[in-house]
Amino acid sequence: MNWHDIALDGAFFFIKSPVRNLWPLIVAPVAAALISDRTARLLPRTAAGSIPAAALAAVPGLVGLTVIFHAINIDPVTSWRGVVSHRLTPLAAAALLTYAIRRAVQRQSRAARLFSIARPASGRLASAAARLGLQAREIPSEARDCFVAGALRPTVFVSSGALTHLDEAELDAALHHERAHVTSRDTLWLVLLAFLRDLAPWGRGVALDAFRAAREAAADRAAARTAGPLNLAAALIALARPGREATDAAVLPMACGDNFRWRMLALLDGSSPPSPSRSEWVKLAAGLSFSAVLLTWPLVQLRLIEFLCIIH
Q: Cβ distance 63 to 35 under 8 Å?
């Protein structure tokens, strides 16, 4: 057997044999998640980063979904190695899909619980929300919370504690901020991206955090234009709590995350996070390109099989 035959046999093992369904299920989504994390660190935490952040957040899950579909539609095999792969690959694919669905159901359950414990807005919250065309509810809690929740019916939730700490101008600024989230359907996008993230639950999810930060920056900019930057900055300070992070994809708390300092600087003196350098933009483009290549793997694999069958 010459080197040509050995190379062909090796290619058939990884591309045409039953193993072809198992190793991409593990390798391809992991590679996509790692590329996404590394690339997302280069993104500016501004509104301009929304689209590339969404793309980087979605790609690992789309790769996982493509490979899962490819793995479940496996042809019957007869060899012992093929039988094992024929059983394990669909099971692994089904487990990932089940995990993602279960997490999505849990998020929906938490959102539904918010609607059940909150009461209809009244007083100045009701009048301010009506003026801005928002659906609003009040949470009977002394915590200082103001956020949008709900993917299909985004609603602003404000706690009793937040209403105590916000004056009229600050409440108006906070609701303008939340209206920007509602208008852009940010909670729906976050839920979809979180579902895709759960299909490839590797890495640290940096791209999803970058998308959230970019949408917060966009909402700040929209609210500052209509309600005034100083009022919005005062509302952020009134609602801020140390160590508070956004953990639920169905909820967009107003004052949280490690971008709080940059948001305050942007509001008070017009500063913004430093933009990526030219070399960083090149790395960002390379990361997006590699991610796109991973998405095309099943089609490339089929074409390689056809080519190898012709020359073998």
A: no
Q: Of all helices (H) and strands (E), which one includes residue 248? A: none
Name the residue type at position 245. E
pLDDT score, position 112: 87
Tokens 């039988």 label which residue?
Answer: 83
The tens digit of pLDDT for each residue in 200-231 reads 888 888 889 889 988 998 999 999 999 999 99
pLDDT of residue 79: 44
The DSSP code for 220 is H
Q: Which residue has the higher pLDDT, 299 or 143?
A: 143
**Claim: this prediction has a pTM higher than 0.70:** yes
Q: For 18, how many CA atoms within 13 A lie in the half-sphere containing its CB? A: 17
Q: How far apart are CA 204 and CA 185, in angstroms?
A: 24
Distance CA(43)–CA(96), nearest Å, equals 28
Helix (H, G, I), strand (E, B) or coil at 143: coil
The Cα–Cα gap between 79 and 236 comes to: 63
Nearest-CA neighbor of 219 among 168, 188, 263? 263
Q: Which residue has the tokens 């999505």?
A: 104
d(CA 239, CA 226): 20
